[in-house]
């Protein structure tokens, strides 16, 4: 994905949620010092009920819960940011909220500094795992029985 | 006579301190880290998440440590933890067709789009203990191969085109029941049964699934498809006004394809049992699918003749936290109840003796 491809806010939030917390901290740091902001909702941890579907595509049923953290901030310049991610890392939720707010103020630099590196790393990790999985694919062959 | 007794505080406190000591064990050995458990005992972690009904790998690993490896105790800890947290919402149902596949096999179709992919499986290993694992020897990196671009549709969707297999069923506009919010009332919807089975005890469901194969409610199953991998979890967030991806969870899905059912309106077609479990939990997902199909007996007008078909029996006993609570409560002091029983048996014996004496005199 290139920096010129416009990312939506939902794309950004997805990449941030899928990022490792240490990587997220690192790329956020390269964005510069933390912007002035107020906390709209302090980071907190709760649950989301994850649903599946009967047979894979039928009626929804409750599969089980997952821990989720969230936070909301407002920059001094007025943009509101909301962070949601699986897990109990409330620091990560706060980072996502800050980044979400910054993305609205300056999408170009957030995209090039934060989102593109995260997207590249995610694509590489997915590709590696797919390639490892692909090596375990069964190649069937037919034995020639020679009885005719 | 009833005598109120108090006591044991010091014994309990000391027992817990002793427990902490035994849990830690030999201090000359390094303590196991949570990350080590998450990475190296991943399937134990998955079982605790699945039956604890809470997806959180680090939390499950911590629970396993605290429980000294006692899985049901760890599951209990996770269940207790979840009651302390608020619920932010309900996810959009996960889409298992869009899974990042790590394993996908079908025992009924050899050639299927996306292929048979074994992934990290115990299948075809020789089940011989490997002494080399006792030493921390280097492990080879996995081999790689160019991944095909072809999608891996669910096997049941492939067959559904010809009408040979029953479809997924109608999607109700009503939200499904939630057994963590409302008490169970039998008979249950299939959705509620699946929720209960998804968090049910693996051993119990395995035994019941096995019983159906041995003839107690035969349903002639084939493993239509088993797939393991990660799916994205999405939540509609009101303050944003759109759905956001929260992250990915690994799940195991099993599509069991079973023998036919038909009636005056519908020609014979394969029926199905469904299993979906958190984590890599193939045995559990298969057992769940076998039980799901057996529990649909009423829906198909089948005779209910076996335990695995009895919804109230299966669902009321599948939860190992409830089961262990009731079984283990027998350890707690029952002095007063037992005193009453003791008085009763003494009185019965006295009556019995006087009866005998009277009979002898006559």
Structural class by SSE content of chain B? alpha+beta
**DSSP strand (E) fraction of chain B?**
15-25%
Spatial extent as radius of gyration of chain B: 26 Å
Question: Unreliable segments of chain A (pLDDT under 50, ≥5 consecutive)?
Answer: none
Number of strands of chain B: 6
Helix-strand blueprint:
The complex is a heterodimer of chains A (148) and B (362).
Chain A: H1 9-18, H2 21-29, E1 37-53, E2 60-75, E3 80-86, H3 90-105, H4 107-134
Antiparallel strand pairs in A: 1-2, 2-3
Helix pairs in contact in A: 1-3, 1-4, 2-3, 2-4, 3-4
Chain B: H1 9-24, H2 34-40, H3 42-52, E1 54-55, H4 57-66, H5 71-82, E2 87-90, E3 100-105, H6 155-160, H7 190-198, H8 202-213, E4 222-237, E5 242-261, E6 269-278, H9 282-294, H10 311-317, H11 320-328, H12 335-361
Antiparallel strand pairs in B: 3-4, 4-5, 5-6
Summarize the structure.
The complex is a heterodimer of chains A (148) and B (362). By secondary structure, chain A is of the alpha+beta class. Chain A is 43% helix and 27% strand.
Write a structural description:
The complex is a heterodimer of chains A (148) and B (362). Chain A is of the alpha+beta class and 148 residues long. Chain A has one domain (9-131). Chain A has four helices and three strands; from the N terminus they run ααβββαα. In chain A, strands 1-2-3 form a three-stranded antiparallel sheet. In chain A, helix 1 runs antiparallel to helix 3 (90-105), helix 2 (21-29) runs parallel beside helix 3 and helix 3 crosses helix 4. The radius of gyration of chain A is 21 Å and the shape is extended. The termini of chain A are far apart. The relative contact order of chain A is 0.19. By secondary structure, chain B is an alpha+beta fold. Chain B has two domains: 9-82; 96-120 and 150-168 and 183-320, no CATH class. Chain B is 38% helix and 16% strand. In chain B, strands 3-4-5-6 form a four-stranded antiparallel sheet. In chain B, helix 3 packs across helix 5. The model of chain B has no long low-confidence stretch (mean pLDDT 94). At the A-B interface, helix 1, strand 1, strand 2, strand 3 and helix 4 of A face strand 1, strand 2, strand 3, helix 7 and strand 4 of B.
